[in-house]
Structure formats: C-alpha cells, structure tokens
Amino acid sequence: MITRRTLLGGLAAGAATASGITLAGRALGSPLEARTTSGQKRAAGAVPLRILNNSGAYRNSSVWVYVVGNDGAQQVWVGPDGALKPVALGDNGPDGYTDYAIPLAASGTTTVQLPQMSGRIYVALGSKLKFKAVKDGNGKPALAYPAGWVSGDPNYDVLHDCAEFTHNSGGLYCNTTMVDMFSVPLAIKLSGAKEQTTGTLKDGARDRIFADVKAAEGFDRLVIGDKRVIAPGHGLDSGLFAKDYLAPAIDEAWSAYASKDLTVTTNAGTFTGRVSGGKLTFQGPQGIKGQGGGTPSGSRGSARIGTVSFDKPSTRDVLFCDGTLAAPNDGTLGPVAAVLGAALNRSTLVSQAHQPTTDPAAFYRQRLTNHYAKAMHAATQDGRAYGFAFDDVAGFASYIEDSAPKEITLTLTPF
C-alpha cells in the first residue's frame, strides 16, 4: 500500500526554497506521449481529472486549478490541454512567477487529463497562486510551492488548498490532506474497479473546524482569520504554538513504560518495549532484523538486529512525525515509529499498552492532545482525515486507491 508518507515523502513547501516531490513506488521514466481528441499532446495512460465547484462561495470564474509534481525524472506541470510539461526557469513571467493555472469551465464540470506522475492538485479561490520556478540544489528547475502557514509567503493572502496523488502503472493513489493546513473543503471520488469517495465534510463543518480549533486551549492562534487553520507543527515553528505543549504527555508515557511492557504490532510482527536509560527499546519478533544501521543518539530512532529503539521525542517530533519518530521505509523501525507517532497524536499511548489502538472512540480524550487533528476527523462524513502524517495508522486517513482507475473527481464542497 502506498501511504501518504511514501506518496509525497520529499515535499517540503516553502516560500523561499524549491520543493522536491519524490515519486512513490518505483521510479517512472519520462512518460510516452499520446494525443488528446483535440490533437494536443498528453501523457500515455492519463485518466480524466474532473473538477467540480460546489463551494457556493466562489463562481467558476474565480477558481483556478494547478496540477504540479514530478514524473520520476523532473518536476512537471499539467496544462489546461492535458499536456505534461517540464518546469522551466523561463516560465517565470514579468512578475517573477509562473502561470500554470487551469481555469474552470464557465459552468459545470471541468475536465483535464491526469498523466502518470506524483504531485498535488491545488485549488485557488479569488486570486491565482504564485508558483516560482527556481533552481534546486542540483541546479535543476524546480518549483517553490505555496506555504500558507508562513506569513511572508506570496500566497499567504490567497484562499487555497490541495489534494495529493500518485498515478503510476500500479494505479492511482490519492488523498485529501490537512497535514499542513486546512482552508477549502475538498472531496475526492475515485472511479475504477470500484467507486470510492473520501474527504467530504459534514454540513457546516468548515465553520465548526475553525470554531473547535479556536476554542481548544493553546490552539487559538492557529486560526488565521477566515482564510485557514494551520497545523500545530507549523504553528510551533512560527511562534504560534507552545514548543513544549505535549511534553507532560510524553513524559507520562516514558514513565509508564519504565515499569511495564508496551507492545506494538506491525506487518513484521509484534514488538515488545520498555523504557530504560531514557530510551524506549523494543525487542522484535524472532528472526526479524532491524534495518537502517542506526543513527546518532538523540537525532531519531535507531535499529539493530532484533531491536528498535527511540529517544524521547519532542512536541515537534510528535506533531511532524519526524526527528526521533522519523519512519524510514525499512519494514521494522519505520512501522513502529508510525504507530508511536499516531498514539502520541491521538493521546492513546498511556491508556493503551497494546498499539495501534483501533477504536476511534478512544482517540483525543486527554486534555493534552492534537486538537487540530481531532477537529478534522470530527468534521468528515467518514471520520477519516489526514490531520497528521501518520494518520494512516489503523486506516483513519482520507486516502483511497484503485489499481484500475477510470477517472478521478475533485469537488470543492460547500463552505
């Protein structure tokens, strides 16, 4: 299964630096070209991407779509004609920014061909987004992505949001995401071997998200007017959220498992852990060998044969599911890190000694919890959301996939 963590693991949007999107699964070569019915070039294997504006707040003439990402060899964008084009420094116009916008049809559904690539589908309401073509660390053309959580970002005042996807020979994998922020209600429908939908909010849920996050102690400054709610990790980096918010909960967990076992079950088997010397160390199932070779103490978890070990994480580590909780794609350390990160965000680690916890009624019941993620899950019709990067643990992410996709529909749902 391709989760969001492998889907777009290298995406680091920022106002001043280019973002590199890594491709999930095997690397794809440069896509073969085909022709649309109008004679325009498009990538072979493309499927229709349908955009439907049911926002009720903006007319089609005030909504723009952007499809940007990576085809496995280079950063690319999709034009209104469905053509897959490489990002080029020369794409910057007189204002210093590209114009990769796809306007919506005057009414009804807008259809664009979605080629094989990995990336994001951005929607901008009221004003266009400003994507800047820059050079990456290797001197190759890349894009600086919108960072709505950064007050100095050129897109800070633009109402925008995005969905994420990977489309390759194995199928189409996609999700709505609130990992960085929430602004525009979006839903995805994926048609293929079966019909699937995720991301749809309950009636009036956008206002409820803003209200719930604002009412949660310590989270109020994450609400940026009526534009967006930013994730607490980004709030922490911006000075809008306490750096030690989760420290008492983390300390409580480390203390609890100094005297009793914590078990974590993954596809590799069940790991049994105890805290000793400040580290939470798990003994793996018989015959399981740790991967990764270890890393410097304090920087993240480390692994050796039969053992997976973690230093005590910081609040930032938990919110970003990074640092000591970074999850390499190694089959042992990574899955255990993901389960720990999910348990700490959902505040179930102390109360449930067998992880992962699969009953959502047990989530977010403590005073010190990820109230941002709690609000996102409470808002969706299916209870699924990507409120933090490890929200796919136990299947609670707004993620769907299909091995034989026929079309994908992205709907701007009512505000």
Describe the structure.
The structure is a single chain. With 415 residues, this protein is α+β, with helices and mostly antiparallel strands. It folds into two domains: 4-212 and 395-412, Thaumatin; 247-367, 2-Layer Sandwich (Metal Transport, Frataxin, Chain A). The protein has helices at 4-7, 205-215, 232-237, 247-256, 315-320, 333-345, 371-379; strands at 33-35, 41-43, 47-53, 63-70, 75-78, 84-86, 102-103, 110-114, 117-125, 132-135, 141-144, 159-168, 171-176, 181-182, 186-191, 195-198, 223-224, 228-230, 262-266, 269-276, 279-283, 302-304, 307-311, 354-355, 399-402, 407-412. The strands form six sheets. Strands 4, 5, 6, 7, 9, 12, 13 and 25 form an eight-stranded antiparallel sheet that branches. It has a six-stranded mixed sheet with strand order 22-23-21-20-19-24. It has a five-stranded mixed sheet with strand order 8-3-26-15-16, with no helix packed on it. A hairpin with a 3-residue loop joins strand 15 and strand 16 (195-198). Helix 2 (205-215) packs antiparallel against helix 7 (371-379). Residues 8-42 and 290-299 have low confidence and may be disordered.
Helical proportion, percent range: 10-25%
Class by SSE composition: alpha+beta
Number of domains: 2
**CATH first level of the largest domain: which class?**
Mainly Beta
Q: Helical region count?
A: 7
End-to-end C-alpha gap = 32 Å
Question: How much of the residues is beta strand, in percent?
Answer: 25-35%
**What is the count of β-strands?**
26
Q: What ranges have pLDDT less than 50 throughout 5 or more consecutive residues?
A: 8-42, 290-299
Please identify which CATH superfamily of the largest domain we are dealing with.
Thaumatin
Average pLDDT value? 88
- Tell me the major beta sheet: 8 strands, antiparallel
Principal-axes shape call: globular
Rg of Cα set: 21 Å
CATH fold-level topology of the largest domain:
Thaumatin
**Architecture per CATH nomenclature, i.e. the level-2 architecture of the largest domain:** Sandwich
